[in-house]
Specification:
Blueprint: H1 4-18, E1 23-28, H2 47-56, E2 60-66, E3 69-74, E4 77-82, E5 88-90, E6 97-103, E7 108-112, E8 119-123, H3 126-134, H4 155-159, H5 170-180, H6 193-214, E9 255-259, E10 262-266, H7 268-271
Antiparallel strand pairs: 1-6, 2-3, 3-4, 4-8, 5-7, 6-7, 9-10
């Protein structure tokens, strides 16, 4: 599933591909991904929205991102882009093309989404577009300071709550907590001021490190896809030696449990043992 780094990769790629270009043709291969609103259910396409997309997508101005959402601004309006679990924009061929944008350069940009969980919402009104773009989102995890974490929920689940901080998903939250030496089952309100600073720094380093790893190419591979390379120290590495503990002479092995319906990997040597009164594991 794309998280903030993969979405930022997409924003940068679209910006690079379309700078100074004009879209000459909008080809809607699957109208179910073009929707009337951000909250429309997946696969709830709209003929009116499709017509609006054809009108708006002509002269690109720029792209903004908050969390996992992208707002693509044009002279005639805006497109709100959501990648969902398997969506991506590509300049190459696609086995699951949903929308194709033909450029005056001859390039074709394709929205690829095998599970139809992503979508495109066109707007002619700028204020409505911006309101939908930022609705129900906390501060961006890369661009803003980590807000104060409150409540009795497990800290990992709070970090993944987009209304608290926008952009962190399962992998980025888990790896950042490992970097910060904080157990994912700790209650959010148990994080003290020193730990909060450490966690805020770990979040930034984790996101920037993933962005560097993704690079500036034309294609991005999601780590959860079958056969994809796994560059992360913890994700899907239960039973392996922790890469931070090994150089220090410790023999800690990475552990795994289910939390909030998702897998969580952690290191007892770096993050301590689970708290006695465990927060919600999902």
């Amino acid at each position: 599933m794309p998280e903030l780094p993969e979405v930022e990769f997409c924003r940068r790629a679209l910006s690079r591909w379309t700078q100074g270009r004009t879209i000459t043709q909008v080809e809607i291969a699957d109208p179910r991904v073009v929707r009337d609103s951000r909250t429309a259910r997946p696969s709830a396409g709209s003929a009116l929205a499709a017509e609006c997309l054809r009108h708006v997508a002509r002269h690109p101005i720029g792209l903004d991102r908050v969390g996992k959402r992208i707002l693509w601004r044009f002279e005639a309006g805006s497109l709100l882009l959501h990648l969902g679990m398997t969506g991506r924009w590509t300049r190459g061929p696609s086995a699951f093309p949903k929308v194709r944008l033909h450029l005056d350069s001859g390039d074709v940009l394709t929205f690829h989404d095998p599970r139809l969980l992503g979508g495109i919402v066109p707007f002619e009104d700028g204020r409505a577009a911006h309101a939908a773009f930022t609705a129900d989102l906390g501060p961006d995890a890369l661009l803003a300071s980590l807000p104060r974490l409150t409540g009795k929920r497990a800290v990992k689940l709070v970090l993944m709550d987009q209304t608290v901080v926008a952009g962190l998903g399962n992998v980025q939250a888990m790896e950042a907590l490992w970097r910060a030496g904080i157990h994912p089952l700790r209650q959010a309100d148990s994080i003290d001021a020193v730990e909060h600073v450490r966690l805020s720094d770990a979040v930034k380093r984790q996101l920037l490190g993933t962005l560097t790893m993704l690079g500036e190419g034309d294609e991005v591979v999601y780590v959860e896809e079958r056969g994809a390379p796994n560059p992360f120290p913890l994700y899907q590495r239960a039973g392996e030696r922790c890469p931070q503990c090994a150089p220090a002479g410790r023999t800690s092995l990475i552990q795994h449990f289910r939390q909030g319906g998702r897998g969580t990997w952690w290191c007892p040597g770096c993050q301590g043992e689970p708290p006695r009164v465990a927060a919600d594991t999902g």
